[in-house]
Design goal:
The longest helix is centred in the N-terminal third of the chain and has 4 residues, at about 35. By secondary structure, this protein is mainly β. The protein has one helix at about 35; strands spanning about 25, 40, 50, 55, 65, 75-80, 85-90, 100-110, 115-120, 125-130, 135. It is about 5% helix and about 40% strand.
């Protein structure tokens, strides 16, 4: 399905400023052990992609909203690992949403749907996955 690019993007300032520490932070586990068992799956083919326990904060938040150079807006969640993804292509730092990180496209390793991006620098790596492309496992 084709979505037209967004022409007017407005960014609101929030009181909480993002951390300047570039190291991803693991979101503390809740007492509910279901996070360890529940996968987030590809919305297209139901292939397990990552787990709730792999959610991390990057630049002070788990979820981010970004626009690419063409104006397409994505809401992503950050994850320490995504074994159900295949990161493809050459690393690039062009228009990186996370300064200091290069990125590659991340596809579902079963149906090849675009699920997000794999970000890395010499010290760390993480996945920024499109929230609307993931579903809780059943």
């Amino acid at each position: 399905m084709f979505a037209p690019p967004v022409r007017n993007i407005y960014f609101l300032k929030t009181k909480k400023q993002p951390s300047t520490d570039p190291t991803p932070k693991v979101i503390p586990k809740t007492s509910d052990t279901s996070d360890d068992k529940n996968f987030l799956c590809c919305a297209v083919c139901q292939n397990p992609i990552t787990r709730n326990r792999d959610r991390i904060e990057q630049n002070g938040a788990h979820r981010h909203v970004f626009a690419n150079p063409h104006g397409y807006v994505y809401q992503i969640g950050c994850f320490s690992q995504a074994p159900g993804c295949a990161a493809i292509g050459q690393d690039t730092s062009y228009f990186s949403w996370f300064p200091g990180y290069s990125w590659r496209v991340a596809l579902c390793n079963q149906c090849l749907t675009l699920l997000g991006w794999a970000f890395r620098n010499p010290e760390s790596q993480f996945f920024g996955l499109i929230v609307d492309k993931l579903r809780e496992s059943t």
